[in-house]
Queue: 2 jobs
Job 1
Amino acid sequence: MKKLFSITFSVCCTLFSIQTNAQITQKTTFNTNPVDVVASAQSCVLYSSKGTPYTVRNFPAAQSLSGVTKMVMNPARSSYAAMTKKNVVIYSYINEDERLFNLKETRKIKEKPTPVSMCYSPDARTFLVANSLNEIVVYNTRDYVPSAYISTEAPAAFIDMSANNRYVAAAIDSKVVIYNFETHEVRTTLEFDSPVTGIIFSPDAGQFAVTATNVVNVYDTRRWELTSTYDLESPLSCPSFHPDGKYLSVIKNDNSINVINLKNYSVEQVLDENASGIKF
């Protein structure tokens, strides 16, 4: 069986040391097939083209897999989850075309759920799938058997879990519902004037960011208080925290990446691709 070696995918490299800024200093481009979906965890990166996963050097990762609509990388970097219109399958990131698990419905219910969104917990022990039955299914990553169900008001377009395993966030239309992971009860609800386009917890679980049309809001997760708001006057999506939590990047207007300094409340750098179509 062929091995899929880990590849460093450096679209943008940031040099830190004693610097106080987050200036991007190097950019590397890979000529790939048309990209539909990207999944990454540290230096491990996959993308799908026309529903089939590839490495960034265009090596097919799973030729038997087709119809992929979303992918997420296991933080342990040993596997990845691929979503199709009907189900979710877990594939090895190490061995080519090795299917590890099929997520199957174990309950006797009339309507078979379809997956909508998914995420791993940062410690790689938990895998979550939001489905069409207005619920988030909790799996352990040892055998991917359902261990719990969290009821939601509607199918969640985005979900994320905090690194301290305390909260699960679900974006539903123009609001984000924060659930206590242990009790499954609603901790708080964040409401917006427009549909939510992205959510993410910071690596230390202390902050939470939400993009909704032109605005990105950052919250303190201890009291769920709004700490800062940035209106960049163009549609925003895909919020992403720097590992030290001092910076937040967002895609602006599908053609640039804005890096926000959360300490001085300013846009520190703009990475302009001069072309529309940035997705991730």
Note: The chain has no helices and 25 strands.
Job 2
Amino acid sequence: RLTSAEHPARLLRTVLDAAIGLTGARRGFLILREASGARFEAARNLDREELRSPATSVSRSVLDRVLRTGLAVWTDNAMEDRRFAGNPSLAELHLHSIACVPLRVKGRVRGALYLDHPERPALFTREDLRWLRAFSDQAALALGNLLARRRIKALNGRLRRLLRARTRELGDARAA
């Protein structure tokens, strides 16, 4: 399903639904990194419902760490994890289990796949983290390929229009 998607939004929803379904996460977010900052592309819950205000629903410190370092972050209980002590978003969101892995294309971090469960500690296992890393790399590759195909298709259309215009110009010049 990853390689056959024709629309980026549909691909991202497919990725997110698969990650949530396979791990039992309560919520999931797909974030793409841009020059202007992180852009939330998809945010869904276990019931596949879109989440409102996703930017205020995640731990920014976890997300920023993954986007900055390119390393996955996994915690059994974010509320008690010393790495995130004093983080106001964790206290406000009452987050326990978090797994956040980078989306990498050609070695560069292009975004992150962020999963959590507010009520259940120790949801994600080491095996889940290994699987999520591999899955996120495949998802990033599929997204990169989809966007490249769209750019090629658009460029092809422009070249065809230029060729038609040039052919008409040549025909007009010969007729004159």
Note: Helices lie at 8-23, 60-69, 88-93, 126-175.
